[in-house]
């Protein structure tokens, strides 16, 4: 959020007004990330959004799924997430 406020200041915009137009969520695991994506989809239907940014969508998969034994499950879960995006 700090970076958004810096950008708002650069363009002489009111930071509070800018942040009112931003929805932010942090995912803590892959299942949480999937739930957040579903909630975001609902929000986008109800409200006008112009941009969605997903930072490090794959990073959580490295921690939640480890080793070759979980490779297939990880790939299937990841494919479902990417299709949703």
Automatic annotation (TrEMBL):
Domain of life: Eukaryota
Keyword Transmembrane helix in annotation: no
UniProt xrefs under InterPro entries: Rad51_C, RecA_ATP-bd
Keywords, sorted A to Z: ATP-binding, Nucleotide-binding
GO cellular component: condensed nuclear chromosome
GO MF term set: ATP binding; ATP-dependent DNA damage sensor activity; DNA strand exchange activity; double-stranded DNA binding; single-stranded DNA binding
BP GO terms, sorted: chromosome organization involved in meiotic cell cycle; DNA recombinase assembly; DNA strand invasion; mitotic recombination; reciprocal meiotic recombination
Domain RecA family profile: 1-85
Name the UniProt record assigns to this protein: RecA family profile 1 domain-containing protein
Provenance organism: Zizania palustris (Northern wild rice)
């Amino acid at each position: 959020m700090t970076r958004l406020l810096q950008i708002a200041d650069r363009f002489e915009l009111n930071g509070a007004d800018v942040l009112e137009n931003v929805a932010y969520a942090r995912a803590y695991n892959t299942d949480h990330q999937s739930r957040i994506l579903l909630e975001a989809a609902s929000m986008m239907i109800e409200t006008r959004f112009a941009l969605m940014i997903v930072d490090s969508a794959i990073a959580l998969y490295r921690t939640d799924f480890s080793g070759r034994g979980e490779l297939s499950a990880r790939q299937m879960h990841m494919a479902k997430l990417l299709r949703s995006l």
